[in-house]
Write a structure and sequence with these properties.
Order of helices and strands: EHEHHHEHEHHHEH
Number of helices: 9
Bound molecules: adenosine-5'-diphosphate
Strand content: 5-15%
CATH class of one domain: Alpha Beta
Structural class: alpha/beta
CATH superfamily of one domain: P-loop containing nucleotide triphosphate hydrolases
Shape: globular
CATH architecture of one domain: 3-Layer(aba) Sandwich
Number of strands: 5
Largest sheet: 5 strands, parallel
Length: 186
């Protein structure tokens, strides 16, 4: 099973990704988490990514595509994976398509989690108080939403044209949303 989760910051991609990965026994690949670990480790990639992340901007596509390509060549991802936070631009989606063609990986679906923007900002501000993340001040949260709508939302159209986009309402309790996602996939 190979899936992509798309959706604005705060919609619950991470929470749902964990449930779905447990269900299908597949690997959860969150590019945000991978980058935060690189920053913590003070690696070359981490040092390059830090300023972008702290300001709520996207890190350069080539950097992300490098991470993903390496990760998808490893053994543990051969049984399947869920991409959470990637792709985030059309160019990343095109790069991803090249990688999957090369690896002969077929995508099963792209799940678009939806919710209204005001609700998301409220959730994120609440989470930001104890997340310890450097990009969760109210100002940066608003900026990340803007980045999503301008740079990532065009992917909804892209995957609609590829006929693999499935929309799921991201409002409600966690278990109900997981059920909705599983029904949509099967
Ligand atoms: P959220 O979904 O809450 O915005 P993430 O943990 O997915 O948070 O991402 C945090 C930050 O990491 C982003 O604001 C961005 O700077 C960087 N990032 C994560 N994934 C990508 C990606 N695919 N392309 C570019 N930047 C990314």
């Amino acid at each position: 099973m190979r899936l992509i989760f798309l959706g604005p910051p705060g919609v619950g991609k991470g929470t749902q990704a964990k449930q779905i990965c447990e269900h299908y026994k597949i690997i959860h690949l969150s590019t945000g988490e991978i980058l935060r670990k690189e920053i913590f480790d003070k690696s070359l990639v981490g040092n390059e990514a830090k300023t972008y992340i702290d300001n709520g901007n996207l890190v350069p596509d080539r950097l992300i595509l490098g991470i993903i390509e390496n990760r998808l060549k490893e053994n543990d991802t051969q049984q399947g994976y869920l991409l959470d936070g990637f792709p985030r631009t059309i160019s990343q989606a095109e790069g991803f398509q090249k990688i999957t063609l090369q690896l002969k990986h077929r995508l099963n679906g792209v799940i678009s989690l939806t919710a209204n923007e005001e609700e998301l900002i409220k959730r994120l501000i609440k989470r930001g108080k104890d997340s310890g993340r450097s990009d969760e001040s109210p100002e940066i949260i608003r900026h990340r939403q803007k980045v999503y709508w301008t740079q990532t939302a065009p992917l909804l159209e892209y995957y609609t044209q590829e006929k693999i986009l499935k929309k799921v309402d991201g409002l409600g309790n966690i278990t109900d949303i997981t059920k909705r996602i599983l029904e949509t996939i099967s």
